[in-house]
Amino acid sequence: MQKDRTTEWFVPKFGPRNFRIGIGILFLPYTGMVVSFAAWGSLVGNFTLERLVAICLLYFLATGVSAHFLDAIGSRTKPWGALPTKKLWIVSLTSLGLACIIGLYYALLDSSLLIPLGIIEGFFLFAYNLELFGGKLHNNTSFVISWGVLPVLAGSAIQTNSISFESSIPAALAGILSYILIKTSRQYKALKKDSTDYTKIKKKEITLKIISIGVMIGTVLFFILRYV
Fold first, then answer.
1. Cα–Cα dist 165/107, whole Å
2. Of 177, 126, 130, whose CA–CA distance to 151 is shortest?
């Protein structure tokens, strides 16, 4: 029976406990997915490498770092243990602030569509991870929108200040993959908590690995095809 998340497959098996938690709390394979989705939006049309890097960095800071540290604050189960709340807030807000600076720079330059997208994304970032409104928005739909669809649209917006038909296709695909990921993740956590059927647990873990790693590999190949 799982007591905390330090036994997860994406947590290093070496180093001090604080180091392992520090890496684990970033959920790097899943963070890699959302960064990849942002890249998809940039890569579907004409793009510049600078803006591609910018949107990927923005999403790494906002959802990879800030959102996950907020999740550690807002989670009722405290899967990472009793971490210092003040430090979690400092890291989360600092990271989010840096992401906002990047977004505002390009929004004020020529990509104003990033502002409404950023506001919506920011709403979900706090509402989902801090389980606001009684946790009513901590659900699969919110995850699909904030983790799958919006990053693709933001990736398109930073390049062209528009959402094209071409970008809606990868946005839909990202939404589907996000749904499969969160659905599988919830089943996986429930099994690790209540079940001793390690075969079922392993199958869910393999599915999570295939989805997250597959998305990242596919994104790298997509980038190579577009850039080279």
1. 21
2. 177
Lowest mean pLDDT among 144-148, 189-193, 214-218: 189-193
Encode pLDDT of 27-39 as tens digits.
999 999 999 999 9
Contact by Cβ (8 Å): 5, 24? yes
Element (H, E) at 177: helix 165-194
Question: For the residues 52-74, what does the mean pLDDT come to?
Answer: 96
Q: At what angle do helices 49-59 and 85-109 cross, to 10 degrees?
A: 150
Quick one: DSSP state of residue 184? H
Kindly list the domain boundaries of the chain, sorted by start residue. Answer: 17-227
Phi-psi region of 81 (alpha: psi -120 to 50; beta: other; left: phi over 0): left
Q: How confident is the model at residue 164 (pLDDT cuts 50, 70, 90)?
A: confident
Residue with tokens 């960095």: 57
Q: Which residues of 169-203 are buried (b: 16+ CB within 10 A; e: fewer)?
A: ebbebbbebbbebbebbebbbebbeeeeeeeebee
